[in-house]
Design brief:
With about 350 residues, the protein is α/β, with parallel strands linked by helices. It has helices spanning about 15-20, 40-50, 55-60, 80-85, 100-115, 130-140, 175-190, 290-295, 305-315, 325-340, and strands spanning about 5-10, 30-35, 50-55, 70, 90-95, 120, 145-155, 195-205, 210-220, 220-230, 240, 245-250, 255-260, 270. Bound molecules: NADP nicotinamide-adenine-dinucleotide phosphate (NAP).
Length: about 350
């Protein structure tokens, strides 16, 4: 099978994860990388054996030997870089949060439709196999009536005003970066249209959200209690709580296991998912590809979104049924509404 040829736009933290994960996906090759700085692109390309390095995103987008572009820039730039890639005829996988607001997301989607190209938000959590299992459990009433979702995702990022997470001009703040994950977990369980939103946030001196609590009310007694922070130490588990049991998901945004606790049973069952085999690469540890696979297997979680993007591109789909455009827009409508309650607008909005 001819591989899908990817270009990586921007050489920051997550771009490395994508490059490493791409090695684990058999029908995928990273053919080029673009940075605002040529030497940075060249160093990145050398690190991963990528053939072509460009000192501008425009040159990357114009590369005729690339099928798709992975947009790995800060939130504030997703709209511009996605439009650039689509207008150059490339399919796009764009990092989360898909855009800064729902209006930008609609514009990106309209362009993908116009160009007849695939576009998807790289919300990798949605593609993790754990959630296929959990969905089936919830459908079989394993924990009774689902009443509540509880989730936190906080990091401890030193308060450097120049860092993108603290910079309002780059759409910094916890919500779009880490807060989007608890919102995603709630959406996967209850849907993305709560009936009411209650929230409070404390702001950094730069004016972005440092930490927040969000309560979403879905009606009929179904609630989600979600927190996130930039400078907060906290267990980052997710919980789905039911009338007859609960599911605990350690590191729920990157989950490779879950724990099912049923109220009437003394047994708590833990289910784990791991890199099952290197079958796609053959057994031989002499195979250099195998060695790379072993080195990068902690990036395994990112392979599922890449596989889904490749599948959709091959089938000529414009959007993924697993991460449809409507869902990306709905999540940003939610973050727009939350930010409105806090009075947080980014300077370019
Ligand atoms: N899925 C995940 O697990 C995950 C994890 C972390 C981040 N993310 C997402 O990935 C995106 C990037 O995050 P990151 O942590 O990789 O950020 P980062 O380390 O700051 O890298 C962002 C890169 O964007 C490029 N860029 C373009 N315009 C820029 C500007 N005006 N200011 C600063 N950088 C600019 C730069 O690359 P060049 O200098 O090479 O042009 C920079 O290195 C965000 O959307 C974030 O939410 C996802």
């Amino acid at each position: 099978m001819k591989p899908i040829r990817w270009g990586i736009l921007a050489c920051g933290t997550i771009a490395h994860a994508f490059a490493e994960a791409s090695v684990l996906v058999p029908d995928c090759v990273v053919g080029a990388v673009g940075s605002r700085t040529l030497s940075k692109a060249e160093a990145f390309a050398a690190q991963y054996g990528i053939c072509r390095a460009y000192g501008s995103y425009e040159e990357l987008a114009a590369d005729p030997n690339i099928d798709a572009i992975y947009v790995a820039s800060p939130h504030s730039e997703h709209r511009t870089h996605t439009l650039l890639a689509l207008r150059a005829g490339k399919h796009v996988l764009c990092e989360k949060a898909f855009a800064v607001n729902a209006g930008q997301a609609r514009e990106m989607i309209a362009e993908a439709k116009k160009q007849g190209l695939f576009l998807m938000e790289a919300m990798w959590t949605r593609f993790l196999p754990v959630y296929g299992d959990i969905k089936r459990l919830l459908e079989t009433d394993a924990i009774g009536e689902i009443r509540m979702v509880r989730a936190n995702f906080s990091i401890r990022q030193p308060a450097d005003p120049a860092h993108r997470l603290y910079n309002p001009a780059l759409a910094g703040g916890a919500l779009l970066d880490v807060g989007i994950y608890p919102l995603t977990l709630a959406a996967m369980v209850f849907g993305s249209r709560p009936k009411a939103i209650h929230t409070a946030a404390s702001m950094t001196p730069q004016g972005v959200d440092e930490q927040s609590v969000i309560t979403l009310d879905y009606g009929d007694g179904r609630l989600a209690s979600l927190t996130s922070g930039l400078s907060l130490s906290s267990p980052n588990d997710g919980f789905i709580l039911g009338s007859d049991g609960y599911i605990q998901i350690p590191r729920f945004w990157a989950a490779d296991s879950y724990r099912l606790c049923q109220a009437d049973s003394n047994l708590a069952q833990t289910h784990s998912f791991s890199v099952s085999s290197f079958d796609d690469y053959g057994d031989s540890k002499e195979n250099p590809q195998c060695r790379l696979v072993e080195r990068y297997q902690n990036r395994y979680g990112y392979t599922f979104e890449i596989k889904e993007a490749n599948r959709c591109i091959r089938q000529g789909l414009l959007q993924s049924p697993q991460m449809p455009w409507s869902e990306s827009v709905a999540m940003l409508e939610l973050t727009d509404a939350i930010r409105a309650k806090w009075g947080l607008r980014y300077p370019f909005e």
